[in-house]
Amino acid sequence: MSTQLISERALARSRSARARLVAVLGPLTMLGGVLWGFLQPYRLTVLHPHGEGFWWLLVEPPLLAVGVGVVFALLIAPGLIEDLEDDAAAG
Questions:
Q1: Which of 3, 8, 19, 50 could lock 15 by a disulfide, CB 3.0 to 4.6 Å apart?
Q2: What is the 3-state secondary structure (H, E, C) of the chain?
Q3: Per-residue pLDDT at 84 exceeds 60
Q4: Phi, psi at 89, each rounded to 5°
Q5: Closest Cα partner for 26 from 67, 84, 64, 83?
Q6: 58 vs 14: CA distance, rounded Å
Q7: What pLDDT score does 66 carry?
Q8: Once rounded to an integer, what is the mean pLDDT over residues 82-91?
Q9: Predicted structure pTM score
Q10: For position 5, what pLDDT does the model report?
Q11: CB contact at 8 A, 61 and 69
Q12: Do residues 40 and 11 lie in contact, with contact meaning Cβ atoms separated by under 8 Å?
């Protein structure tokens, strides 16, 4: 094992509960959107697009929930986690 992998694992273990909570919010939101799609498939007109336009098919509540989870996990959460870790190191 390289020392970089070991130090990354040690860093992941030393995260605060707040940082772990922020890291889990995106995947939980995505999971909620997928479960919503399975529990209420009639909301997904992608499955039966009879005469629906592009925007009607794109703006589906379960798909939006998954999209918000992806955006949060990839774009917002890393910066928040970094700020939380910097704040914990400073304080």
A1: 19
A2: CCHHHHHHHHHHHCCCHHHHHHHHHHHHHHHHHHHHHHHCHHHCHHHCCCCCCHHHHHCCHHHHHHHHHHHHHHHHHHHHHHHHHHHHHHC
A3: yes
A4: -70, -35
A5: 67
A6: 40
A7: 95
A8: 87
A9: 0.74
A10: 62
A11: no
A12: no
Distances (CA, A) of 68 to 27, 33, 57, 60: 10, 9, 16, 12
Name the more confident of 61 and 49: 61
Q: Which two tokens stand for residue 80?
A: 């928040």
pLDDT in tens, 4-54: 666 666 555 677 899 999 999 999 999 999 999 999 888 777 666 777 777
Instruction: Compute the distance between CA of residue 83 and CA of residue 26 in angstroms, rounded to an integer.
Output: 17
Residue 75, burial from CB neighbour count under 10 angstroms (0-12, 13-18, 19+): exposed
Q: How many CB atoms lie within 10 A of CB 86?
A: 10
How many residues in the chain?
A: 91
